[in-house]
Amino acid sequence: MKSKKPFVLLSSTGLFIGVLLMILSACSENKEAEAKNYLGPEGIPVSQEMIAELTSPPNVPGPTGRRKAKKLIVNMEVLEEEGEMTDGVKYVYWTFGGSVPGSFIRTKIGDEVEFHLKNHPDNKLPHNIDLHAVTGPGGGATSSFVAPGHETQFSFKVLNPGLYVYHCATAPVGMHIANGMYGLILVEPEEGLPPVDKEYYVMQGDFYTKGENGDRGLQPFDMKKAVDEDADYVVFNGKVGSLTGDNAITANVGETIRLYVGNGGPNLVSSFHVIGEIFDVVRVEGGDLINENVQTTLVPAGGAAIVEFKVDVPGTFILVDHSIFRAFNKGALGMLKVQGEENKKIYSGKQEEGVYQPEGSGIQEMPVDKGVAQTEETAKSLQEKMEFGKATYMRTCFACHQAEGQGIPNAFPPLAKSDYLNADLNRAIDIVLHGKTGEITVNGEKYNSVMTKQDLTDEEVANVLTYIYNSWGNSKKEVTTSMVANRRNTH
Ligand SMILES: [Cu+2]
């Protein structure tokens, strides 16, 4: 509901007037100002150094207000951690700063950001970061690639105001994003955004699990469903219920709210809507364009929007992706709880909290347990072994050794045309059964890393190795279940 016209200072207009005044007053101003107007944001000088405040969702760091551009140090740590998608459903999230979405970064136009990306030593995979607010190749991705136990550093100057997505861009990119590696970085205009009473950070993401929605236990990522865009969960802030019940965001009647809404995807576009509210202002796609009096705004995958509204009456307002099955059946539902005096003129009703959650928190009852299945049958022909082996590979080995067995330089050795693999079949079986540490040389390149023990049945090991040996130019050996059982019992 609208109270007053939002005041908007288009920074380009401001700049234009600034330039005009400069010309009229016929120079003699200080050199800094001249450089700035001549070069645009690139010329904005930075004073002092400052450590960026980073917040986890739904919190947002304090406004930059009227502060000058600074050298802003961002310390971001990548953590791979098990978390809960919903009651009884576990998922291993890959995160920027330990949360999904990752820590919110708030900058001001002209800031020189010195970005430190740390990959925790307990992590299994290399990562990097592509910030859409960066002007430069890969948005920082190539400069920030970092292996577990290492740290990288790069800098950039923020030149364009707006709300931007950042995400991991390490291959397979879709998988890193699907596991939660995204967040928002805000670049405030010189004069700052107009003040509001409450600001919150909400980011949508779609998740793909081996089991169906609600299947219990630790659910691995499902590549096939991700490729097919067949999401099991569509959620705000990383999990079902992150913004409902006690986790709801709050406000008081009469306050103005600003939501920084992002969409990490990887696949789905969000039709963002707040049930019972009208956005007084939408900063469309997080840019300079302002739309007013909007019911639902599109937030593209890898994009954002800023929505602002005043709350006039108390009650629970439901945040949804208005592709509505996602809200009621897959988790894309949050709550804004507003307290205060009723205003019968604006709304007369009879209100019921939670009225919009008739089907619970996004979990549908699934009568049969499909948790296991899949590899229970026994493969008979070589072709079947290849098929089952490929499924195991895509589920278990693929994250490190990559889709075509090509590996990742300096991190994961190739399985394609691997001289190490082809030289000794029993050794390969042992590696899959027990893991591997210490230096090895594969195709002339040295690796000294850790492959954890893979929790697979003898048949799964036989099938996955048969698949690998019969793919990508390897030596076409067939591995049987009894060969694996024999190694397991004797080594
Ligand atoms: Cu990553």
TrEMBL record:
PROSITE patterns from the UniProt entry: CYTC (PS51007), PROKAR_LIPOPROTEIN (PS51257)
Coiled coil start-end: none
Sorted UniProt keywords: Copper, Heme, Iron, Metal-binding, Oxidoreductase, Repeat
EC number: 1.7.2.1
Binding site for Cu cation: 127, 132, 167-168, 176, 181, 322
Catalyzed reactions: nitric oxide + Fe(III)-[cytochrome c] + H2O = Fe(II)-[cytochrome c] + nitrite + 2 H(+)
Transmembrane segments: none
Source organism, top-level taxon: Bacteria
Family matches, as SUPFAM superfamilies: Cupredoxins (SSF49503), Cytochrome c (SSF46626)
Subunit structure: Homotrimer.
Family label: Belongs to the multicopper oxidase family.
NCBIfam families assigned to the protein according to its UniProt record, in alphabetical order: Cu_nitrite_red (TIGR02376)
Protein name stated in the entry: Copper-containing nitrite reductase
Organism of derivation: Aquimarina atlantica
